[in-house]
Amino acid sequence: MKSVFDPTVETREVVMKCPRAGDLLKNYRIDYVRNGSQPIGEAIKEQNLNSGDVMNELNILYEKNKDHQRGMTKWEKQKVNALIQYIIDAHHSYLYMVLPKLQDMITNIFNKYVGTHPELSHVHYLFSILKIELEQHILIEEELIFPKILAYEKKPTLNALIDIKEFVDDLKREHEHIGQFLKDLRELTNDYKAPEDACDTYRLAYVKLDELESDLFQHLHLENNVLFPRVIG
Ligand SMILES: [Fe+2]
Ligand SMILES: [Fe+2]
């Protein structure tokens, strides 16, 4: 049987064909959002992983899930307005809900443990900035850029396209920045491993931060690798 993925396939292609591979790549620290055009073989090498083993794992995952995936929405084939609505409903709504809760939890554990776990002061600082950036970012998408894209879909003009391209470049830069925050938070928290003496809130905060990272990876992947190329090529 021929394998669906070989080492030359771009990382974003892997996740588009097999959405479940997103979590696997995340666990291997392979960034399919910011480095979506990187060949998977190269990304595996960079992480000092065994190429044969990881390629095998990806191909098995694809085979196991391909029937299920057939029933899943292939966003690259859907209308742009449906994709935008999905991003807002699934990912932006999640952020509106989870960011304030996480802020409370992180402030709480920062106050309680900063004496014994001083890295929490940096975690608190980084998360607070990330929260502000994300809230502004999704608001600008919803209020300004998504409406421009929807208007362009209805009436495409060269001027509108040039305008959208500039905004999309800004959004991509912000995605880079968000990705860097996530990387720093993961390092600071020792891969979101709560220490032995952590209370339930501390543990839950790290679980929720890990979930936030997974959701943001899927969210930014849909924008960078599916939505934006659909609109600006
Ligand atoms: Fe977004
Ligand atoms: Fe975005």
From TrEMBL:
It is found in: Cytoplasm. Coiled coil: none annotated. Keywords: Cytoplasm, Iron, Metal-binding. Transmembrane segments: none annotated. It holds the Pfam family ScdA_N. InterPro entries: Hemerythrin-like, RIC_family. Residues 86-230 form the Hemerythrin-like domain. NCBIfam families: FeS_repair_RIC. This is Iron-sulfur cluster repair di-iron protein. It comes from Fictibacillus fluitans. The gene is ric.
